[in-house]
Write a structure and sequence with these properties.
By secondary structure, the protein is α+β, with helices and mostly antiparallel strands. The chain has two domains: about 1-45, no CATH class; about 50-100. Helices cover about 50% and strands about 15% of the residues. The chain contains three helices and three strands, in the order ααβββα. The protein has helices at about 1-5, 10-15, 55-100, and strands at about 20-25, 30-35, 40-45. The chain has a three-stranded antiparallel sheet, with no helix packed on it. Strand 2 and strand 3 form a beta hairpin. The protein is flat and about 80 Å long.
Length: about 110
């Protein structure tokens, strides 16, 4: 943006009281710039692009999104049903591991690690 403003500095000197408009190369928005302060005075956003070409495409996309939501919901329900078994198995494994490993004694503190 600074580079663009530097290009127009010579033009700004000749038209010290008038503003000029520049199109943003990234998003296509129109920027109204004051040449004396090099500040953006007004901003007109770029027109939005259409996401879908017609209503058939839009309805298809909505149906597919609904199907994805339903599938994710079914998966989460199944995972919730098995969650208790998974937690019990994890607890048993952790308990077995705790019994097998010897106690090292004094626990480490954070400032001992420095």
């Amino acid at each position: 943006m600074r580079y663009t403003l530097a290009l127009y500095s010579s033009m700004a000197k000749s038209h010290s009281n008038s503003t000029f408009e520049i199109a943003c190369p990234d998003c296509g928005a129109m920027l109204k710039i004051d040449p004396s302060t090099h500040a953006v005075i007004a901003h007109t956003p770029a027109p939005r692009k259409r996401t879908f070409e017609d209503f058939d495409q839009a309805t298809r996309a909505l149906r597919e999104a609904e199907e994805r939501k339903e599938s994710i919901f079914r998966q989460s329900v199944e995972a919730q049903k098995n969650q208790e078994d998974v937690f019990n198995k994890r607890f048993e494994e952790a308990l077995k591991k705790a019994k097998e490993t010897p106690d090292t004694g004094k626990p480490l503190r954070e400032f001992d690690l420095d």
